[in-house]
Design brief:
elongated; 63% helix; 1 helix; mainly alpha
Length: 68
Protein backbone atom coordinates (compact mmCIF):
# COMPACT_ATOMS: atom_id res chain seq x y z
CA UNK A 1 0.00 0.00 0.00
CA UNK A 2 1.60 3.18 -1.13
CA UNK A 3 -0.02 6.15 0.57
CA UNK A 4 1.20 9.54 -0.65
CA UNK A 5 -0.18 11.27 2.46
CA UNK A 6 2.16 9.43 4.83
CA UNK A 7 5.31 11.04 3.41
CA UNK A 8 5.66 14.81 3.35
CA UNK A 9 6.44 16.16 -0.08
CA UNK A 10 9.22 18.59 -0.86
CA UNK A 11 6.61 21.32 -1.34
CA UNK A 12 5.22 20.71 2.15
CA UNK A 13 8.71 20.87 3.66
CA UNK A 14 9.51 24.09 1.79
CA UNK A 15 6.23 25.64 2.93
CA UNK A 16 6.97 24.60 6.51
CA UNK A 17 10.44 26.17 6.43
CA UNK A 18 9.06 29.34 4.85
CA UNK A 19 6.33 29.51 7.50
CA UNK A 20 8.98 29.11 10.21
CA UNK A 21 11.02 32.00 8.77
CA UNK A 22 7.93 34.23 8.63
CA UNK A 23 7.09 33.32 12.20
CA UNK A 24 10.64 34.10 13.32
CA UNK A 25 10.56 37.45 11.51
CA UNK A 26 7.17 38.28 13.06
CA UNK A 27 8.39 37.44 16.57
CA UNK A 28 11.56 39.52 16.01
CA UNK A 29 9.47 42.50 14.91
CA UNK A 30 7.18 42.15 17.94
CA UNK A 31 10.22 42.03 20.26
CA UNK A 32 11.82 45.09 18.63
CA UNK A 33 8.59 47.11 18.77
CA UNK A 34 8.04 46.05 22.38
CA UNK A 35 11.57 47.09 23.31
CA UNK A 36 11.10 50.46 21.59
CA UNK A 37 7.77 51.04 23.35
CA UNK A 38 9.23 50.15 26.75
CA UNK A 39 12.13 52.55 26.16
CA UNK A 40 9.77 55.33 25.03
CA UNK A 41 7.51 54.85 28.06
CA UNK A 42 10.53 54.84 30.35
CA UNK A 43 11.82 58.15 28.94
CA UNK A 44 8.35 59.68 29.14
CA UNK A 45 7.97 58.50 32.75
CA UNK A 46 11.35 60.03 33.68
CA UNK A 47 10.24 63.38 32.21
CA UNK A 48 6.95 63.24 34.09
CA UNK A 49 8.74 62.46 37.37
CA UNK A 50 11.10 65.37 36.74
CA UNK A 51 8.21 67.74 36.10
CA UNK A 52 6.34 66.43 39.15
CA UNK A 53 9.40 67.34 41.23
CA UNK A 54 9.02 70.95 39.94
CA UNK A 55 12.31 70.94 38.06
CA UNK A 56 12.69 73.12 34.99
CA UNK A 57 15.50 71.36 33.11
CA UNK A 58 13.77 68.04 32.43
CA UNK A 59 14.30 67.82 28.67
CA UNK A 60 17.95 67.78 27.55
CA UNK A 61 18.81 70.32 24.87
CA UNK A 62 20.65 69.42 21.69
CA UNK A 63 23.66 71.77 21.63
CA UNK A 64 25.31 70.35 18.54
CA UNK A 65 25.96 72.87 15.81
CA UNK A 66 23.72 72.28 12.81
CA UNK A 67 24.69 73.31 9.35
CA UNK A 68 28.12 74.62 10.25
Amino acid sequence: MADGASEPSQHDEDASVTRAYYTLAFVAIIVIVGWWLADSFSEHNQRLECLAAHRHNCVPLDTSERGH
